[in-house]
Design brief:
Protein name: EH domain-containing protein 1
CATH class of the largest domain: Alpha Beta
Keywords: ATP-binding, Calcium, Cell membrane, Endosome, Membrane, Metal-binding, Nucleotide-binding, Phosphoprotein, Zinc, Zinc-finger
Number of domains: 4
Strand content: 5-15%
Distance between the termini: 86 Å
Main location: membrane
Strand order of the largest sheet: 14-15-13-16-12-17-18-19
CATH topology of the largest domain: Rossmann fold
CATH architecture of the largest domain: 3-Layer(aba) Sandwich
Number of helices: 23
Shape: globular
Structural class: alpha/beta
Region (Disordered): 41-83
Radius of gyration: 33 Å
Domain FYVE-type: 121-180
């Protein structure tokens, strides 16, 4: 008998239950005597071989008993009376139930044998993971973590769960990997001393939401996508890496508009793999991500890593993967976002043909997974080439993510800038063709001072810079909500796609002429769209582009698609109407609790409340509060003494403090400046107060950027013990 199939044995015959009320691999064996019967649970592999020479069923008879049919079978043996004692695999009694003889009870209830799940219920008829129906060959198993029922394929693992004792129990695939994924999402490159507790809380909240969203997608949306070849028509299937990834910023533009310099400007340092110059320097897609050390990972290696969101890039072939790299470096900004630098768009058919891959298709793949799309223009080059036009058209379905950046605006005067801005809007109006106005940011986004020509616009540039940074700053805070939004859009498209395929399939002939009929249907898709829209009361805005759908249809035979199951649609609708709103509600409740304390890493600073006289150490001679409050001082003191300071008084050398300071992810130039400012005594070592000041400056630089570190310490930054 196969493992995982609970059975009941009486005498020399075995009755197999379908597993509706049993969990894991347990066998209940009844040994009947004149007065009692003992039920013992043991591994199925042991019980299956007992009494029948390992063959399983004595006499070769096997009968599957449903709940509804179990009572009559049991009532035949109720004349003698039973005393049922449940015993676990170690011989310990679990439960005792008495049945009076002649009382004609309705049989031993299954609830007395196994505790029911409080989630999903033992009456579940389909797997919560793949939505496959349970059957004789596909038994159900209870996940002891989420209390849902899964098939053996979706619950192949066992793990320790504290509430379930010290023995590993069966869990589903999502729960088995949940802790690993949550740890990976919540991991930051720097030590927790530099990470705000509310930021960690946001990361944990995001990880929990993504885990729930991943479960909904795999159980209720992915089955329809696979059945109707959704990935052949539109985007590829989502992987765990897609749900676990940080918010992504995609930069697009013609060559030498400042895309790479913009990334360097945000990171405040060089990054591995960067190429900057007036000529077309960036000749590949470069994803800049967080990592423990600075390195460049080739595209082929990055695409096979399941922990990265780039696994589905393999569909573009080796020619593209050879032009794709992942740049890793420790950075406080990359703790929160991932940036993607793209090759400069050229104005010529020859360059497009010789790329070796479809540039627009790759950009579309990144756009679908990006949280913000920045299209950069040079103030001196406003022409929109054919390839840039096609790229913007590809990005049109993601208009809500697009922001326009007019870069290098400091190289022109105010009057010229006004004309350039008008020309840019005119050019975009002919390409975008949308009544909504795209947000345009104007400035000079690089690490050099403003040009003299643009000095008159410095106030405008500063305001625009702050607006852009605020927009990027909000990305980590709302990442979970945006991914929920993207999944809803994908699910609506998958629903319409399945209804369309099912509608067209129903019109196909049974015997011959299928090719000609499919060509006719593909030629009048607009008419079929209207029929499906009226039949199912759908919005026309949810329907795919006819040309795109027609192209996908050309490589498939409509007769090969399965008939759409009403249950599959009901399952998907349940996910959209119940599960996802529940996730959104939990996100909202959690967000409301921490909104007042939320901090982010891109151009922001958390201002401490100084209204409380006990919030900071006061220097009563100057009446100036020290910027390091008492709580922070205690935290930095703990870190100080954990590094084993020496001497009297205790001090840390540069070698001892080096590791902690490097863990901040700041550039070496910034750390050198912070050390010089903190070493007030100029003795080459840091005491406890100087170390606390250094940690405060590092935290400020992580939040506001390296430019926030002052050139000279103000009085409020000098420790009271160092003030004269």
């Amino acid at each position: 008998m196969a493992s995982g199939r609970p059975v009941v044995s009486k005498g020399n015959s075995l009755l197999e239950f379908g597993g509706d009320d049993f969990v894991d691999d347990q066998v209940i064996t009844f040994s009947r005597s004149k007065k009692n019967v003992v039920a013992d649970t043991a591994p199925a592999s042991v019980a299956a071989g007992a009494g029948d020479g390992g063959g399983g069923y004595a006499g070769g008879k096997e009968k599957k008993v449903k709940n509804s049919a179990a009572a009559p079978r049991q009532s035949q043996s109720q004349q003698a009376g039973y005393s049922v004692a449940l015993v676990d695999s170690k011989g310990r009694p679990l439960k005792m139930t008495s049945v009076d003889s002649g009382a004609a009870p309705q049989g031993v209830p299954l609830e007395a044998l196994v505790t029911k799940s409080n989630g999903g219920g033992p009456q579940a008829t389909h797997c919560a993971g793949c939505s496959s129906p349970f059957s004789f060959s596909k038994s159900k198993h209870l996940c002891r973590s989420c209390n849902s029922y899964f098939c053996s394929k979706c619950s192949p693992h066992k793990k320790l769960i504290p509430s379930q004792g010290d023995v590993p129990v069966r869990v589903c695939d999502v729960c088995f990997h949940a802790d690993t994924r949550r740890d990976r999402i919540c991991t930051v490159s720097s030590t927790s001393y530099f990470t705000d507790p509310q930021t960690l809380h946001r990361k944990e909240r995001h990880a929990a939401a993504m885990e729930a969203l991943n479960r909904v997608y795999k159980a209720k949306i992915k089955p329809i996508e696979q059945a109707f070849k959704f990935s052949s028509f539109y985007a590829s299937e989502l992987t765990d890496g897609d749900f676990d990834s940080r918010p992504m910023i995609l930069l697009v533009g013609q060559y030498s508009v400042g895309k790479t310099s913009f990334i360097k400007y945000l990171l405040e340092r060089d990054f591995p793999g960067q190429r900057i110059g007036p000529e077309p320097t960036t000749d590949r897609f470069l994803a800049i991500t967080n990592g423990p050390v600075e390195r460049v990972v080739p595209g082929n290696a990055a695409a096979v890593d399941p922990n990265r969101p780039f696994s589905s890039l393999t569909k573009f072939g080796t020619a593209f993967l050879n032009r794709f790299e992942v740049s890793e470096m420790p950075s406080p900004i990359l703790d929160n976002v991932t940036m993607v630098d793209t090759p400069g768009i050229l104005s010529g058919e020859k360059q497009r043909v010789e790329r070796g891959y479809e540039f627009e298709d790759v950009v579309q793949w990144f756009a679908e997974r990006s949280d913000r799309i920045l299209i950069l223009f040079d103030a001196h080059k406003l022409d929109i080439s054919d390839e840039l036009k096609r790229t913007i058209e590809v990005l049109k379905p993601h208009e809500d993510k697009i922001r326009i950046v007019l870069n290098k605006a400091d190289l022109v005067g105010p009057q010229q800038l006004m004309r350039i801005y008008g020309a840019l809007m005119w050019s975009l109006g002919k390409v975008v063709r949308s009544p909504e106005v795209l947000r345009v940011y104007i400035g000079s986004f690089w690490d050099e001072p403003l040009n003299e020509k643009g000095a008159l616009n410095s106030t405008l540039f500063e305001a625009e810079k702050q607006d852009l940074l605020s927009d990027l700053r909000a990305l980590p805070r709302n990442a979970a909500v945006r991914k929920v939004n993207e999944l809803i859009k994908r699910a609506r498209l998958a629903k319409v796609h399945a209804l369309l395929i099912n509608h067209l399939r129903a019109k196909m002939p049974m015997l011959w002429g299928s090719k000609e009929k499919q060509k006719k249907l593909a030629g009048r898709l607009e008419e079929e769209y209207l029929k499906v829209q009226r039949e199912h009361n759908l919005a026309l805005g949810d329907f795919p582009n006819p040309e795109k759908f027609r192209a996908g249809l050309s490589v498939h035979n409509l007769s090969d698609f399965p008939k759409l199951s009403n249950r599959q649609m009901d399952v998907m609708e349940g996910g959209l109407s119940k599960d996802i709103p529940k996730i959104m509600m939990e996100l909202q409740e959690s967000s409301d609790a921490i909104d007042d304390f939320e901090t982010d890493m891109i151009g922001s600073v958390r201002l401490e409340d100084k209204s409380n006289p006990f919030a900071a150490t006061l220097d009563y001679a100057s009446r100036e509060a020290w910027v390091v409050d008492s709580n922070s001082k205690a935290k930095w003191d703990n870190l100080f003494y954990s590094l084993s300071p020496t001497g009297n008084p205790k001090v840390l050398s540069g070698t001892q403090a080096r590791g902690v300071m490097l863990n901040s992810g700041l550039a070496s130039d910034t750390l050198r400046k912070i050390w010089d400012l903190s070493d007030i005594d100029q003795d080459g070592v840091l005491d406890a107060d100087e170390f606390a000041l250094a940690m405060h400056l590092i935290s400020m630089a992580r939040n506001m950027g390296g430019a926030s570190v002052p050139d000279e310490l103000p009085l409020s930054h000098i420790p009271p013990s160092k003030r004269s």
